[in-house]
Predict the 3D structure of the following.
Amino acid sequence: MPTWNRLSSLIRKEFIQITRDPRTLAMTFIMPVVMMFLLGYAATNDVRNIALVVLDQDQTPASRQLIDAYRVADYFVVERRVASEQELREAIDHNLARAGLIIPPGYGRALAGWNSAQVAFVLDGSDPTVASTALAAAQLIGQAQATELTVERLQARGQTVLATQPIEVRTIVWFNPALINAYYMVPAMIGIILQYLTTMLTATSIVRERERGTIEQLIVTPLRSWELIVGKLTPYVLIAFLNTIEVLTIGVLLFEVPIQGDLGLLLLLTALFLVTTLGIGLLISSIANTQQEAMLTTTFTLLPSIFLSGFFFPLAAMPVWLQIISYAIPLRYFLIIARGIVLKGVGMTALWPEVLALSLFALVVMSAAILRFRKSLD
């Protein structure tokens, strides 16, 4: 029997087996949607609407002007006003607010007398991300108010204000001018979803054959080892590409992520990344004895990829020894490729180091998986 006939029979058999488990098949396509919603909306460092409690002990137009400055900013929402520092403390202790603004008596009088006035801004530091954002925003709003008052005082005295500053810094943000977090997360979601789904489906599929005893039936057929591997993996490659298109479609339609680069190049390099993830799944299938063990091992391999690839946290902020370990994470290179093509619109000229590293990983991992798989069949 020709090779293609043997392969097509095995691929057809694998597709039939997949469709016999509709719940798993449905989860394969529902999971990317759920992950996109959760990570696209929830996984963000853009902190907004921080609950603010206000203790205004001055009750003057000047104090109300300062409160309005914090209210109109996107960073704070004035949840309540309190009458004492004890109430302010209780509000923060009971998580009713993350920050507190204390305006002392005499604030308006000090400003009217052209003197300096001080206010207190209390922060809940139990969440460093929120606290650091609130601290920076509070300082910026305070500086803006101080600058506005300085200009008003100079104009009231009849003094001229410099029309231009000695140094003017104009900031320009490339690739993501609005600094929208979803633009950064959505391309990375392709790598996370592909690694998890392809690795898990490949590993559990082969282990399931072993559990049911049908792997022995495949071994005694005229199928060669490489034909058995290709036939088993082909359906999951097709599913993975459908997942890729699904994620990109959701990203463009829902999150309005612009694809600046070549979509064909992105799919081609995605296929290269798939060789690595499928090889990892094949390795797990040769080690695991049960489907549960295969799923746990898949989850275990996914955790380092999430935390050491630059998906959530910048690599430059990690200790040097963790940065060195991250070079052994294939997802690290694919994230650079995906974000580079989608956001920056770059091509092979800029991405060749990552493509070379990913090719090396694909060759090593798949070769090791095939050798291990052959031994497990013996």
